[in-house]
Specification:
Elements: H1 2-70, H2 76-81, E1 93-94, H3 102-108, E2 117-130, E3 138-149, E4 159-170, E5 185-186, H4 195-221, H5 225-236, E6 260-261, H6 276-297, H7 302-329, H8 339-347
Antiparallel strand pairs: 1-2, 2-3, 3-4, 5-6
Length: 351
């Protein structure tokens, strides 16, 4: 009886051991299966993350390349970058309206990025700080950001965002856009010509023109035949002072900085004409000689007097037209607080 009891206890122990071993093997199999699935899923996630980073970096590189290209052309983005900043401005300035998203969409359509969805692409300026002594030069932070939704895996939905930050500086390397269309650019106005003297000369020329025109009209009305025809020709060569706008306006006599620009690039403009006052003084000397000749010619008859008066009228008209030419070809920028004047002031030390 004792031997039978021992055999029963030994058999129970063996069954318990076998059951334990089978349970351990089952757990090991389950764990191996679970670990393999986990590793497979983890490997899939790593691949998605790698592809996301490659995609996002490609998208941001495309944006940065556009910014670099458009910044040096006459574009909306370039004008946005040049916008003056008076003090530190932390506001966000969206640059996306100036950029083309087509290259980003083309990248996203490639086979290796199938299933990825571009949720948002951003490019903007923030924290703009103007440089001392300049209206347009500044430093700023350029932020590039791509938000992408990864391909779904079952119920999982993953969104990733990559952001790159660039420090940029906006520097002027050319003449200001307001002034760059000019063919010639001169600094201080009162160093170019005597504006007050030029205006005084214009008044004198206008006064002499009025007197000559009135005298010629009286002589024409008092004559007939060939003398009358000669006086008609002389009057036709003279500026009609009764006509509206017959004489140019006076030049503004600024005491502060002002600038001249040659706007009509196709025009021939001799440098000596830049000193208008001196040129008009030379014209006046010629006009005085012609006036003396007119006085002498009256003694010889109406025909000679009319021809001399015609030559005088032409000389007066030529001198007055110098004023017209000076004002139409050259532009004066007064220091009156306007935007062009402020830009000119900022550029003054660099000319």
């Amino acid at each position: 009886m004792n031997h039978g009891g021992r055999l029963q206890r030994s058999g129970g122990t063996i069954l318990w051991c076998v059951a334990s071993i089978l349970a351990i093997l089952a757990l090991a199999g389950f764990w191996r299966s679970f670990s393999t699935a986990h590793l497979r899923l983890r490997g899939h996630d790593i691949e998605l993350e790698w592809r996301f980073e490659a995609l996002a970096r490609s998208l941001l590189a495309g944006l940065e390349a556009q910014v670099r290209t458009l910044a040096n052309q006459d574009t909306l983005l370039a004008r946005t970058l040049r916008r003056p900043v008076a003090k530190t401005d932390p506001a966000w300035v969206d640059l996306m309206p100036s950029l083309d998203q087509a290259p980003a969409l083309a990248t996203l359509a490639r086979d290796e990025y199938r299933g990825f969805v571009l949720e948002k692409l951003e490019a903007g300026l923030t924290r703009q700080v103007g440089l001392v002594g300049s209206l347009e030069e500044k430093v700023a932070v350029l932020v590039l950001r791509a938000t992408v939704r990864l391909p779904s895996a079952g119920r999982r939905r993953a969104v990733r965002c990559l952001e790159q930050v660039r420090s940029i500086k906006v520097s002027r390397t050319t003449v200001d856009p307001e002034l760059r269309r000019f063919g010639i650019f001169v600094g201080q106005a009162d160093g170019l010509t005597d504006l007050a003297q030029a205006n005084s000369m214009l008044e004198d020329l206008a006064r002499r023109t009025v007197a000559l025109h009135d005298a010629m009209v009286r002589a024409r009305d008092a004559s007939s035949g060939e003398p009358r025809r000669e006086w008609e020709l002389a009057i036709g060569a003279c500026i009609d002072p009764k006509r509206q706008g017959a004489f140019p306006r006076k030049l503004p006599e600024f005491r502060q900085w002002a600038y001249y620009g040659l706007e009509r690039r196709s025009a021939d403009w001799f440098l000596e004409n830049l000193d208008l006052a001196s040129t008009l003084q030379e014209d006046r000397s010629r006009i005085l000689e012609l006036e003396a000749r007119c006085e002498e010619s009256i003694k010889t008859g109406h025909v000679a007097a009319a021809r001399a008066a015609r030559e005088l009228a032409q000389a007066l008209q030529k001198a007055i037209f110098r004023h017209w030419g000076f004002q139409s070809v050259l532009r004066l920028l007064p220091m009156d607080g306007s935007a062009p004047a402020l830009v000119a002031t900022a550029l003054a030390t660099r000319l």
